[in-house]
Design brief:
single chain; alpha/beta; L-arginine/glycine Amidinotransferase, Chain A; three-stranded mixed β-sheet; 15 strands; binds citrulline
Length: 256
């Protein structure tokens, strides 16, 4: 059975890292309820949910995506770019033990999983404030034996590559063109633009096995564009963790 690793929302989420949005108060109970609905969406797609216990002093620890990169035959434990997030990786590595052979990004490399977009045998990696040249070079060396090529993508104005672009179908990407130049970097893909009024809507979680994408209900105009393109959207209410600069890809690690 495929597995989704998640982690309970920390009671310290109000102290999360913020880069591109202003701090507003976050309701922990509401964030937890929305997180449970997100887990239910994954469960309805066939995933066994393995929810790690709350980390009361790690504010951003619900965003497990940033701590690992899952490949079919290995998992890479990252070294997150934000110092406050480095202690999140040990428990994720423990959860992945036995599921995949583990490899590790080492100092001075930094890499956030939110910057890593798997595209068949190619991995697009955002060069951002979180993922540095050394981290990307280490990733390139680690994945080469598994047949993956790494391509570095400059990202301007967004926290992570996957804030700006995600895959929503076999040959289709959802993109905010202000943050990533898809004509240069993803020229051979079909591209759907987010609605201009919804800059954060490019973060969608493609569930290939279910033939749908999980997408935040905060972005109905972009969801309508996806539907028009024949892509089935599974909306989840996710605005509370959105206040912590997190999207729908950030809250899980999926193992097929
Ligand atoms: C952070 O700044 O690290 C968190 N507040 C948000 C991380 C979101 N993760 C992601 O997009 N993969």
């Amino acid at each position: 059975m495929p597995i989704a690793i998640t982690r309970a929302v920390s009671r310290a989420i109000a102290r999360c890292e913020l880069t591109h949005i202003d701090r507003v108060s976050i309701d922990v109970a509401s964030a937890r309820a929305q997180h449970a609905a997100y887990e239910a969406a994954l469960a309805s797609s066939g995933y066994e949910i393995r929810c790690l216990p709350e980390e009361a002093d790690l504010p951003d620890s619900v965003f497990v995506e940033d701590t690992a990169v899952i490949l079919p035959d290995a998992a890479i434990i990252t070294r997150p770019g934000a110092e406050s997030r480095r202690r999140e990786t040990a428990s994720v590595a423990a959860a992945l033990e036995g599921l995949r052979p583990l490899l590790h990004v080492e100092e001075p490399g930094t890499l956030d999983g939110g910057d890593v977009l798997l595209l068949d045998r190619e991995i697009a990696v955002g060069r951002t404030g979180r993922s540095n040249a050394e981290g990307i070079a280490q990733l390139r060396r680690m994945v080469a034996p598994f047949g993956f090529a790494v391509r570095e993508i400059p990202v301007a104005g967004a926290l992570h590559l996957k804030t700006a672009v995600t895959r929503v179908a076999e040959r289709v990407l959802l993109v905010n063109p202000r943050w990533v130049d898809h004509r240069v970097h993803f020229a051979d893909w079909i591209v759907i633009h987010v609605d201009e009024a919804e800059p954060f809507a490019a973060n969608a979680l493609w569930i290939e096995r279910a033939g749908e994408v999980i997408h935040s209900a905060s972005f109905p105009l972009t969801a309508a564009r996806l539907s028009c393109a024949g892509i089935r959207v599974h909306p989840v209410v996710a605005d509370e963790l959105g206040k912590a600069e997190g999207g729908v890809t950030c809250c899980s690690l999926l193992l097929e």
